[in-house]
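Try it yourself: sequence plus 4-nitrophenyl phosphate, in.
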Amino acid sequence: MRVLFVCLGNICRSPTAEGVLRQKLRAAGLAERIEVASAGTGNWHVGKPPDARSQRAAKRRGYDLSAQRAQQVTAMDFNRYDLILAMDQSNLRDLKALQPAGALAELDLFLRRYAGVKDEVPDPYYDGDHGFEEVLDLVDRACDLLVIELKGRL
Ligand code: 4NP
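Structure, out:
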């Protein structure tokens, strides 16, 4: 099974979700069966590592994002991944516009199924440290629930 997280720049939110889910899958013994990746709808940061602020916030909780590099989502991804999870409504709209007819991937808002109060992971890029902490809070909790869901699908 293959999961793709998508945000705007692929340097803050979706790489955080990728790193967090990968580590939780490893801990659950599922790393061999479920592949995780992330991408951005935009191409500005392609090839770059995650934002230093995201890396720091992740590291404080034991997640290492340093090996990840940004890439842009493509129409082909809709036939490469089983589940594509958008961080906010704007990402979801952009993905729907890119989705080829008859594509196999299931497309949804990441927090729609795992949400507490919020259904979007807010863009922290122009925010202070608080925004990056909030991304980690939301992603960490949602990934715990996503692991349970994915287990049920295997
Ligand atoms: P992300 O955050 O979508 O969570 O990676 C952003 C990163 C870069 C930009 C916007 C959002 N940007 O405008 O360059």
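One thing you can check immediately is this: The chain has a mean pLDDT of 96.
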